[in-house]
Write a structure and sequence with these properties.
The chain is mainly alpha-helical and 170 residues long. The protein contains 6 helices and no strands. The protein has one domain. 78% of the residues lie in helices and 0% in strands.
Amino acid sequence: MTEATQDIDTLAKGGRTNIAGFVLRLAARIPFLFIAGRIYGPDLVGRFAIAVVVVELAALLATLGLKRGLAQALSSADRPHANVVWDAMAVAFVASLIASAVLCTFPQIMYPNSAITGLDRFLPLIIVAIAWSDVSLAALAYRLNVKAAVTARAVVEPWTISIAAWAFSY
């Protein structure tokens, strides 16, 4: 088998793993919808969904170009890969802090149709964690470990939010 064929096989395997992970991620979100819908009601779940979309979009902007650029930087780096990844993490951290500060200062962006109460304004603080996990998973994908990304996104993340929704209801 030539090197080009091996690369194509690796990409195809990664694509199949991502598709399977996407389906698994959707299926794993169903318990969250049942738990949150029953305990908190549809209004709060809808409010949460809008806020999550805004936070996820801010995290996406915080990592804009970093995930794809990281693979390019790693393939052409003449210094240790760990240093390149930590540089990307530092950039993601700064961009995440800026996005978090904007959303904490103007929480109406996340909650356009309802009042901001309690700890609502601090939801954007998770942007750093989202951005760092995206950069870390991109570094793992560069090392051809797509399974870690699928496991994190399709198993750990959905079940964590389902368990947290149940636990925080008490």
